[in-house]
Amino acid sequence: MADSPKERLLAATMDYVTKHGIGELTLRQLAAALGTSHRMLVYHFGSKEGLLTEVVRRSEAEQRQFTSQLLADSDQPPIDQARRIWQQLAQPEMAPRERLFFEVYAQALQGRPHTRALLDEIVETWLEPLIAINRQNGMPPAEAAASARLGLAVTRGLLLDLLATGDHKGTSAAMEHFLTNYLPLVAPVSKSRGTQKGKRKR
Amino acid sequence: MADSPKERLLAATMDYVTKHGIGELTLRQLAAALGTSHRMLVYHFGSKEGLLTEVVRRSEAEQRQFTSQLLADSDQPPIDQARRIWQQLAQPEMAPRERLFFEVYAQALQGRPHTRALLDEIVETWLEPLIAINRQNGMPPAEAAASARLGLAVTRGLLLDLLATGDHKGTSAAMEHFLTNYLPLVAPVSKSRGTQKGKRKR
DNA sequence: TAGCGCATGTACCAAATGGTACATTTCTCC
DNA sequence: GGAGAAATGTACCATTTGGTACATGCGCTA
Questions:
Q1: Most buried of A72, A175, B35, B187 (most Cβ within 10 A)?
Q2: For residue A76, what pLDDT band results from cuts at 50, 70 and 90?
Q3: In Å, what is the separation between the CA of A41 and the C1' of D7?
Q4: Which of B21, B105, B177 sits opposite A150 (nearest CB)?
Q5: Rounded to 10 degrees, what is the CA torsion of A183, A187, A190, A196?
């Protein structure tokens, strides 16, 4: 059951969609790439929309897993954690996943049906753990929320920049500019020596 | 010549595309909405791709004009200028244009043909004037570039957030958090009293 | 007014798309 | 090993798509 035919098809579809995007997808092209017929896709997923819905759902799940993984080991200072996260996200191998993420994001903003559930989670999923980190570092609620939201925006904005320009150096410099000039200033009171807060998300 | 039939069609198409997005556009639906036939669209623009190319080009032009308009009157302190720009961008009436912007952005990242020229400009167009402003306020080149890039990312990231969540209050609070905690700190030396630097972009 | 070029409407086409009917194979469980 | 269900392949269908042929209208200039 773990790798039922449907599951195998979905996994292969995720690979394909990560490479080729979701916008111009047709069942026949996908099926050909997967070595099957479009008949099977309809059989297992009901319809094209059904397939896309599951693709988006799976994408969400992977992202959630990725989030908790990135934010997990918080023993190091938040600023170092943030640096590490950006380095991970800025790796070239991540680009296809991120392109897909922003493509689905944009389609959701345009109201495409199979993305209906996405908009509620696309910010909140990342915001919650970030706010929690900020609270743990002694930030008052309002500031914790604003700071988390800002960090998320910085990360996504710089990722958009990186994907468009390919300027790893420039975008990383901007992130470093943010981390060094901004992060140390927000949470003056905290644990022992000045660990401050955490930013980051995709 | 100013409002040739082609020009009128393009203008009406911009309206339509701003409302309905560009991803699921078909010539027939568009033509029906414009009160003409898809025959005319092909006649004037050569093909669907030709039409989309001109739509993207026009969108770029409008954005460039909007940029220079927003960054024009720089008599006020950069932080107030930044606030004003965000208020403009966050207005609900701007949402459709911004949704279209991010949709085209995402399609460009996926390599759709009619967007080829976009990726080179989509960051640079906004970056240049921002860097110029930072330089005018006495920032060294490297810092001016990083700071401009950061401000652009913050704005676009928060716009993505706002479009998804509709949380005008929360995103504006995050922007204000950025402006008050970050902006005043970057350029300590400057003109007279502490005007510092400018951030902003869409 | 005659003529010419731009613009437009109607009808059509081939290709591709999502989806389905039906037959066949493969797997699973008793 | 046999029966029933799950899975798959082949062929087909109606619809929609971008694009075109052809005829008609409109506006300008001589």
A1: A175
A2: confident
A3: 12
A4: B177
A5: -10
